[in-house]
């Protein structure tokens, strides 16, 4: 085996990505726990709140979070018991239902968000100048769209500086 293969920048890039993810996840988990939320619950609340009408079809929520449909059902069940979200039947398809943020879910998100944003600023975006942040966001979106084409399923809106993902054979299955 060629010992220089481990100096490959592709291995370095993925390794750094994993290290950053692990470090940020640990900081986020501690802060979110102070508000009685897991990282998955925070992600669900955030994705629902950023979606039109503060709601998503359960299948779209599963696609956006990379959870299985049964995994989303378990999380939604737990969050519904805690009063953070509710389910609403889809008027046009009896087989589908929507997960909808409740006022209590919005309050919980509002309580946790300032500390969460401060951690993001301190440990992530604040480490980059505006040009580097823009380049990083562009690169992350391209990689996300390639490896997870359903990540924006059910969202009619994109972030203010984000272009909609191009339609591919894979994305039409979302």
UniProtKB/TrEMBL annotation:
Superkingdom to which the source organism belongs: Bacteria
SUPFAM superfamilies to which the protein is assigned, alphabetical: Winged helix' DNA-binding domain
Annotated segments matching region Disordered: 151-174
HTH marR-type domain segment(s): 10-145
SMART domains linked to this entry: HTH_MARR (SM00347)
An annotated Gene Ontology molecular function: DNA-binding transcription factor activity
Family annotation (InterPro entries): HTH_MarR-typ, MarR/SlyA-like, WH-like_DNA-bd_sf, WH_DNA-bd_sf
Parts forming coiled coils: none
Gene Ontology biological process terms from the UniProt entry: response to stress
Protein name (Swiss-Prot/TrEMBL): MarR family transcriptional regulator
């Amino acid at each position: 085996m060629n010992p220089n293969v481990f100096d490959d920048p592709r291995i370095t890039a993925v390794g750094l990505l994993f290290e950053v993810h692990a470090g940020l996840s640990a900081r986020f988990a501690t802060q979110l726990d102070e508000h009685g939320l897991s990282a998955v619950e925070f992600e669900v609340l955030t994705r629902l709140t950023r979606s039109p009408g503060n709601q998503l079809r359960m299948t779209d929520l599963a696609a956006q979070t990379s959870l299985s449909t049964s995994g989303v059902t378990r999380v939604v069940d737990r969050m519904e018991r805690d009063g953070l979200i509710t389910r609403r039947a889809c008027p046009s398809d009896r087989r589908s239902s929507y997960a909808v943020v409740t006022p209590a879910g919005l309050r919980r998100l509002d309580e946790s968000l300032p500390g969460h944003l401060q951690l993001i600023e301190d440990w992530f975006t604040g480490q980059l100048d505006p040009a580097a942040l823009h380049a990083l966001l562009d690169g992350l979106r391209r990689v996300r769209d390639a490896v997870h084409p359903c990540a924006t399923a059910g969202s009619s809106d994109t972030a203010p500086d984000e272009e909609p993902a191009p339609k591919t054979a894979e994305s039409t299955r979302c």
